[in-house]
Design brief:
The protein is mainly beta. A hairpin with a 7-residue loop joins strand 26 and strand 27.
């Protein structure tokens, strides 16, 4: 209608123009109410294949909403190919996180789930859309009128079997303080033992007609807004560790709410087979509190069948009461996407006096825990100050489980046939598809492998001559 009127504008249409201006003025006056009709802080999208006989997947979105916004709304899933109709899904409330913003609004977790059967193998970009983000996000323009959109990529290949995407076990909403380093880790765990890597991306608000995502308008990474590092030696930095997933902002410069996004990429045999998208919110406070600190062991390795124990320590410089927790796939039950053989974490209970706590990590490994990729155990310490917001420190411990060495090798030499017959005990671990490798070299070589070193380095001069079951 406005387009038609614009074609009819002449010097005699002055009254019509004034009327349109008056109507537009009324609409603009009501924009603050529209802006308040928003609520989404963060979310992520994961998948699991649920059928052996069809390409049926269950997709789950965990959405985190600002309770100061509108009531929860349905969300829309799309499945990445033209013949699939979008599906509107209602939410299930999972309760509150207990993380409040600078206005005192708490955060509620919502779960959206849908099952979908794909027509054939291939790569699919599955997305979730809902309006709108919560108002006042500092590093994007007009967030209260900006939609929330995340997309994850899933590769369906019969060779992968019942492959599932990584699950992210640590919530994507957290508190930070002006001038103090902020650390987040998603606690990603892949039940199939696939390799995971991490990369930053820009927050998104939808997609175009060609299925390409649309970035949030005037988005800026947090460090682009100024500030300096915690130690004051340079400008603020913002990055994600591509190996362990530590998201580090060193350090926030201004109070407010900031949204950032990243992908957890899934790899198998050198090929990328999926990517899970997380869009998270960091609530920065002007906080008199100092963050607590963790002390964890260095990355390690253990032989299957032995028990790993370690002491995890937490300290608080203000001597506030602190809580220690362990998070990630090693501490999550398999029904929730975690590891079948769980580790345990028992807090010692040293407080009071406050400000110092310890916990005992114990994991009794078995042959089923052997895999190429290391496991990640993520630990968190949170303080509870009398004045100010709680702050946390997060650190991740990587643990590799290797198979035990074969035992009681005997070499019988036959000088007549110029051969050697090798015999050893039946291997104690039944690993599907695994092989024993046989190596030889001319002359002696005094090789003592390092702790958990597997295989034979090239410098030893050994040549592989056989593989047996």
């Amino acid at each position: 209608m406005i387009h038609l009127l614009s074609n009819q504008f002449t010097s005699q249409n002055t009254r019509t123009i004034k009327s349109l201006t008056f109507i537009l003025g009324i609409l603009l006056a009501n924009i603050p109410n529209l802006v308040h009709a928003s609520h989404i802080r963060a979310g992520d999208l994961t998948a699991v294949r649920i059928s052996n006989t069809s390409l049926t997947y269950r997709f789950t979105v965990f959405l985190y909403r600002d309770e100061g916004g509108v009531p929860p709304q349905p969300g829309t899933f799309e499945f990445g190919y033209s013949s699939a109709e979008p599906v509107s899904v209602q939410y299930v409330s999972l309760g509150k996180v207990g993380i409040k913003d600078n206005e005192g609004h708490d955060t509620e977790i919502l779960m959206y789930q849908v099952e979908h059967t794909f027509p054939s193998p291939g790569g699919y970009k599955v997305s979730f859309f809902q309006t709108n983000r919560n108002y006042g996000v500092v590093n994007m323009f007009n967030s209260g009128n900006t939609a929330f959109y995340i997309e994850s990529v899933f590769s369906i290949n019969p060779a992968y079997g019942l492959n599932s995407s990584p699950v992210l076990t640590i919530p994507p909403v957290d508190l930070a303080a002006v001038g103090q380093k902020f650390i987040h880790n998603p606690g990603a765990y892949d039940a199939d033992g696939d390799s995971l890597s991490y990369r930053l991306t820009v927050c998104k608000q939808g997609k175009d007609d060609e299925n390409n995502s649309i970035e949030v308008y005037q988005y800026r990474y947090p460090d682009e807004l100024g500030g300096q590092t915690e130690d004051g030696t340079g400008p603020a930095t913002f990055s994600i560790d591509p190996i362990n997933g530590d998201l580090i902002w060193d350090a926030p410069g201004e109070v407010g709410e900031y949204n950032v996004a990243f992908y957890v990429d899934e790899w198998r045999n050198g090929q990328q087979i999926g990517a899970v998208n997380r869009d998270m919110q960091i609530i920065v406070t002007d906080n008199p509190n100092d963050r607590p600190e963790l002390e964890i062991p260095n990355d390690t390795c253990i032989v299957a069948g032995t028990t790993l124990e370690a002491i995890i320590k937490g300290y608080d410089p203000n001597l506030d009461f602190i809580t220690l927790t362990a998070e990630g796939g090693l501490f999550t039950d398999s029904e929730s996407g975690g590891h079948t053989n769980q580790a345990t974490f028992e807090v010692t209970g040293l407080q009071p006096p406050n400000g110092r706590e310890e916990g005992v990590f114990t994991w009794e490994t078995t042959c089923d825990d052997i895999r190429t990729e290391p496991y990640q155990a993520t630990f968190k310490v949170r303080d509870e100050p009398e004045d100010g917001y709680s702050l946390v420190d997060i650190q991740t411990w990587r643990i590799t489980v290797v198979g035990p060495a074969p035992e009681n090798l005997v070499a019988d030499v036959d000088l007549i046939s110029n051969s050697v017959e090798l015999n050893w005990d039946d291997y104690i671990c039944n690993i599907p598809g695994a092989k024993m490798t046989v190596w030889r070299r001319r002359g002696a070589f005094d090789f003592e492998p390092d702790n958990c070193e597997t295989g034979l380095p090239a410098y030893t001069g050994y040549e592989k001559i056989a593989e047996v079951d």
